[in-house]
Amino acid sequence: MGKTATSISSTSSSTSSSSSHPARKRKLPKTKASESSSDTSAAKRRRSSSKGKGAAKRSKSKSRKRRSKSRRRSKSARRSPIRPVWGRGSERGSERGSGISRVRGSERGSEPKLPSYALAHISQAALDAYQAPTEEPRCKTGLVLLGDLCQGPKVARWTYILKDEARRCFAGYLKSPFSKEQCFQFYKTAYDGTSWKRPRDMPRGTAWMVAKGCTCSYRYGGHEMEPEEYPPWMLEIMRAAMPFFGLEQAAEWPNSCNLNLYDTGGSSVAWHADDEALFNGKFQDARILSLSLGVQRTFELRPNFQSDSKASEWMNLGDGDLCTMEGMAQKHYEHRVPPSNVEGPRINLTWRWTVRHTPRCPARRMQPD
Hints:
Residues 253-359 form the Fe2OG dioxygenase domain. It is built from ten helices and 14 strands. The chain has 369 residues and is of the alpha+beta class. It is elongated, with a radius of gyration of 40 Å.
């Protein structure tokens, strides 16, 4: 009995103690899955902390770069010798309150040309009030128009649609002096005898020919045209056409020709100026001669400081018509052949004088210093 009571009391005491103090959970041994999960969480914490540090470093480096760029821009702005040609709200200009300011310089020709994106935000009235730089009159420079060289009782008169004496810019045309049979033969010979190049983003065919002894390539509009020596048929066409420009002797003829093939009315040439370094047309008088063969197309001109795309002068050039641009027209004017609804092809031969040959061209070594 005593033992039984003792056991009962011990049991009750253990029960009461267990009820007052709940039993602690036993720690189970770690399995591989739990170890891998703990390792993964630790790795994630390390990566997140490293990412945070890297992002902070990158943001600091970016801020440093921005500050250095702003410093460089401010320094270049302070050091830049170029001043804008135009300025809104300025009282200095050709007319007070016109909103146009002029650059002061030793030479008017040194003024930078206004870019096209800036022209779009300037009113036409302000552009009309602007006095573009003028050139010396042709009586001082000795410029003689080609239309004046071929005067005679049996020679047709040239018509000059552009006579800008202040800027020494001229453009004119002569209606076809050739027969229809001659024009057809010229077109067929030029079409069949030319290796037409068709660049991907150029809406026409083109070719570049030069006189014997010249190897200058022609670069324009992001394209480079390799030269081809004048073939015999080109000399025949020049022999027939050059006298109507007043150039009787072969030594006076142009030494380069750019040929363009307009397959349809959609083939065109955008606004541009032939101011490449080969021809030096921005710094001296330059003559450009052309012969049109095929369907009639419109040839347009405009001042290069004009904001809209409208032409100020134009001429309709048909089969066999001759055209010329002279003086400083490539400096102060632009020209184009816009798209048209006409059907049929057209070939244009544009002759020019290359005066600044490339360093590797043999013709450059023959030029006087």
